[in-house]
Design a protein that fits this description.
78% of the residues lie in helices and 0% in strands. It has 410 residues and is an all-alpha fold.
């Protein structure tokens, strides 16, 4: 059921000027609220974790790259499983809810892990497992609750709400650190409490949209058969290749901190630059993708990240350069995160939507895990600037090749 229906002619012509929230379903808004609260919780941890591991526990860039890669790649094994089970059981909401719940419990695991790097690694892997289980079913719910012509807008609205949480999370983390006199344990426990609220919101306000699907059609063979479809296979392949040459968020913030010698007290504020731009541009770029094509906007986001990397290894010309780099990092996410799901969604049958989206996400997760390890190794062996320059060059080359490939029609 839509909050307010828009005429088909208006959607086609783009003449309807009602606010974006009026054009998306109530389910998308409810899922956005769940993601908002969840991201407050997760970004509280993300904002302080690099500082805690590198400065607090003394990890070198390679060690941090291994943990960051684990954090990004632990979802890979379970994304397809979560999507497949959600489609097979026709319980998208239930599988997503289990994933949200597992991630919430892992915040308590960080409290129990203390300063043990091995234990922290196990907890981070479990936390990302929860994320992997929930992401495919959640994005399938968004896709199945939206009109095909407005998928970019729906994902943009969801990602914008999600980013409000990403914006608030570091602020809450800083407030908790200040009130607790620098206690990371207090941050982790508060994060658990917030995540529990998100699980409750999901249970109360999100409606399942499984559709009338024959379970026999949702087999493992049918799921792997998606990769035999040329357009879907090419989208999955290029998304993975671009993920392989993408520098992870934590490394971007660590580079900023090293280059501009930003005080540890202000480190949790760095993600706010990314989140602020993401919040402003997620809906406009989602609408633009619906109009001009989702693949060009997706690649434009990678071009923004490439430019940000070039600025990071350029002359140390003042804090304004760091602000511009953070802004471009936000443009990257606004133009890629939801847009890729909007591009892949129409290529997948409704009964396999969670599975198919999870396949795309798995390719990205594996690639980004390898990317974190390789970048950490390059930083350790070559130092900071050469590692960033090589990453920027590789990203530019792959993005240019993907522009000629054009796996998604406008």
């Amino acid at each position: 059921m839509y909050i307010a229906a828009s005429r088909t002619s208006d959607l086609a012509s783009g003449t309807d000027r009602k606010p974006a929230l009026k054009r998306v379903s109530a389910n998308v808004v409810a899922l956005g609220m769940v993601s908002l609260v969840t991201d407050v919780s997760s970004e509280m941890v993300t904002a302080v974790l690099p500082l805690y591991l590198v400065l607090g526990l003394g990890l070198n860039p390679l060690q941090f790259g291994l943990l960051d890669g684990l954090y990004a790649g632990a979802t890979a094994v379970v994304r397809v499983l979560g999507g497949h089970l959600a489609d097979r059981w026709r319980r998208l909401k239930a599988v997503a809810g289990f994933g949200y719940g597992l991630s919430a419990v892992c915040k308590l695991g960080l409290v129990a892990a203390g300063s043990s790097v091995a234990a922290i690694g196990v907890v981070l892997a479990a936390d990302r497992t929860g994320k992997g289980l929930r992401t495919g079913p959640r994005d399938a719910l968004i896709s199945l609750s939206s009109e095909p012509a407005t998928l970019g807008r729906s994902f943009g609205v969801h990602r914008a709400m999600d980013t409000v949480g990403a914006f608030l999370g570091p602020l809450v983390a800083m407030a908790v650190l200040a009130l607790s006199l620098g206690s990371y344990t207090s941050v982790f426990f508060t994060s658990f409490c917030v995540a529990a609220i998100a699980v409750l919101l999901l249970a109360l306000f999100v409606r399942d949209r499984p559709g009338a699907v024959d379970r026999a059609a949702v087999s493992a063979r049918a799921a792997f058969g998606l990769l035999r479809q040329q357009d879907f296979r090419r989208v999955t392949l290029w998304a993975a290749l671009l993920g392989l040459v993408t520098v992870g968020d934590s490394f971007v913030y660590l580079v900023l901190q090293r280059r501009w010698e930003i005080a540890a007290t202000y480190f949790p504020l760095l993600p706010l630059g990314t989140a602020g731009i993401y919040l402003l541009l997620a809906v406009p770029l989602g609408k633009l993708a619906d109009r001009v094509g989702r693949w060009p906007v997706f690649l434009g986001g990678h071009a923004a990240l490439c430019l940000a990397l070039v600025l990071l290894c350029g002359p140390q010309a003042g804090l304004w350069l760091a602000v511009v780099a953070l802004g471009l990092h936000g443009v990257f996410y606004a133009a890629t995160d939801g847009v890729l799901m909007a591009a892949a969604g129409p290529l997948i049958p409704a009964g396999l939507r969670a599975t198919g989206l999870a396949v795309v996400q798995t390719g990205q997760a594996v690639a980004r895990m390898l990317s974190s390890v390789l970048f950490g190794l390059a930083w350790t062996l070559w130092d900071l600037r050469p590692a960033v320059l090589v990453a920027a060059a590789c990203l530019a080359a792959v993005a240019l090749a993907a522009a000629f490939a054009k796996p998604v029609r406008p």
